[in-house]
Amino acid sequence: MVLRNDRGHLLAAAGWNLLHWDSTQVELLAMQYIPLLIQDWMFDAAGLIVEGDNRAIIRAMQRLTEARHWETHPLSGEDFNWTKLFHRVFFNHIPRECNSAAHFCAHLALNCDFKWLFADRDTDAIPSVFWDILWSDVSLFS
């Protein structure tokens, strides 16, 4: 899971060791875990960008956060009330080949749970290979 602010700057990266036969359900569970990453300083951003490579889940989250959906199906989004805490939440589908950071997080989560908050500046906890991956992802769009 990779979270960015409205300018694309990395806010958090995390992974959870979840086992399920349906990868779509795993992606949906990861969306429900986002409140574990939210910090007060993140609310200063004009928006939150959630990146994912599962097009179906990203589209479902986009529909879920539309104001009209909250009004017509108020209980359906109970696990996603965290989206109401931000000015805007953008769910972006990023193809796996352009989303190496999230792919790296998913593979690391096979071994252990982890959470990196980038305002902490505790870069010792973040593997150097992750920084290299972030740089290569940015280079794709330069």
> Number of helical runs?
5
Beta content comes to 15-25%
Lateral arrangement of strands in the main beta sheet: 4-3-1-2-5
- Taking all Cα atoms into account, the compactness measure Rg is 15 Å
N- and C-termini, Cα separation: 23 Å
Q: How would you characterize this protein structure?
A:
The chain has helices spanning 23-32, 55-64, 67-72, 100-109, 128-140, and strands spanning 2-5, 10-15, 48-52, 89-93, 114-117. The protein is α+β, with helices and mostly antiparallel strands and 142 residues long. The chain has a 5-stranded mixed β-sheet, sandwiched between helices. A hairpin with a 4-residue loop joins strand 1 and strand 2. It comes from Dendrobium thyrsiflorum. It holds the Pfam family RVT_3. Residues 1-108 form the RNase H type-1 domain. InterPro entries: RNase_H-like_dom_plant (IPR044730), RNase_H-like_EbsB-rel (IPR052929), RNaseH_domain (IPR002156), RNaseH_sf (IPR036397).
